[in-house]
Amino acid sequence: MIRVLVAEDQSAVRAGLVLILRSASDVEVVGEAVDGEQALTLARELRPDVVLMDVQMPRMDGVSATRAVVAEGLADVLVLTTFDLDEYVFGALRAGAAGFLLKNTEAKDLIAAVRTVAGGEGVVAPAVTRRLIAEFAARPARPPKADPAVLESLTRREREVLACLGEGLSNAEIAERLDMAEATAKTHVSRLLAKLELRSRVQAAVLAQELGIQHAEPPA
What we know:
about 220 residues; alpha/beta; 6-stranded parallel sheet; 10 helices
């Protein structure tokens, strides 16, 4: 069973999420939190596999709670938002969230995302990734927060894959762009995430944007 903690301050939304999750035979909702502080407390007590974490909550926001949950190794965090893009969203990703979902996600996709994150993989819909990146890229230029030296451990091919992630491409799209098998693209993604000590492909996309690594070209 996949043990899930739901952290959402709006009671109606929280009830809907719980109802959806409980419809899956392999998912158990072990707790509900109304703010980030309670989410952290319950994560420490219950040790769920996944925390569904709203971004904007009272007392302790979802970013701070995500950072604490990840830092203490309590669970993987799947962030929920209405997609009001602001620093909270990017902060949650930098804090180590393993996935990013919209609150209007279809029930089957929500359950699938929980299963994916519980299995140790990150999950973000490609369309959502592109919207995040577009918003990030449209902002005024700032000094990069990332150190370019982190790229020294990557091979040329891994840098090309990182550029593709910076464009929000899925594994299948990366494979087509770089003329490789989809399984190979998935392997490259996993390796570069491990090398860069990133928890999700969205973190990799943000890194690519910060370092100006974009527009991977197909092989000649």
